From TrEMBL:
It comes from Methylorubrum salsuginis. One of its GO terms (cellular component) is plasma membrane. Residues 110-179 form the Rieske domain. PROSITE patterns: RIESKE, TAT. The Rieske protein is a high potential 2Fe-2S protein. This is Ubiquinol-cytochrome c reductase iron-sulfur subunit.
Length: 189
């Protein structure tokens, strides 16, 4: 009996091969579980394109000339950014509301202090076709599919489109920078 006690007494503080194998197996198992779980957890996060599609979009306005229309995409939707000429601003302010299919004053289509900038979705409100800029009878867009015509601030003037080109949420962070997806300085939901 004395020999058995001596063996246990020396093995206790230093550990045994069995203790080492138990710890090594546990550590290997933890690394293996982590290696398998990481791709699964990472696959639940949205990809970069999805994140970018919902994020606000900054547009540099400085290179856009008077009368020019720039097409950008935000959340997968076509957006028209148009710099109106002084004549277009004057003409659009003078249009009587009773001549419109979906009456909207000029001031409801642009931001105060930035009368020369129109920002609107770029699809016809009839069936979603893309209207052609600088065409039609009203200084704006004409839809090639069914003949709807919009004026320079996106108000429908000739049908079958029932409503004006919608306005996305946007804000001016400076005179030369526009942020689509924000209204009044905070992100749109």
């Amino acid at each position: 009996m004395a020999d058995t006690t001596a063996t246990h007494a020396t093995a206790g503080p230093e550990g045994t091969k069995r203790d080492f194998l138990f710890l090594a197996t546990g550590a290997g198992l933890a690394v293996g579980v982590g290696a398998v779980a990481w791709p699964f957890v990472a696959s639940m996060a949205p990809d970069a394109a999805t994140v970018a599609a919902g994020a606000p979009l900054d547009v540099d306005l400085s290179p856009i000339q008077d009368g020019q229309i720039v097409n950008v995409f935000w959340r997968g939707k076509l957006i028209f950014v148009r710099k109106l000429t002084e004549k277009e601003v004057t003409d659009m302010k003078a249009v009587p509301l009773d001549q419109m299919i979906d009456p909207a004053p000029f001031s409801a289509r642009v931001k105060a202090g930035h009368d020369q900038w129109l920002v609107s979705y770029g699809n016809c409100t009839h069936l979603g076709c893309v209207p052609i800029g600088h065409s039609g009878n009203f200084e704006g867009w004409a839809c090639p599919c069914h003949g709807s015509q919009f004026d320079a601030v996106g108000r429908v003037r000739r049908g079958p489109a029932p409503t004006n080109l919608p306005i996305p949420p946007y804000a001016f962070s400076s005179d030369t920078k526009l942020t689509i997806g924000e209204e009044g300085g905070k992100a749109a939901a």
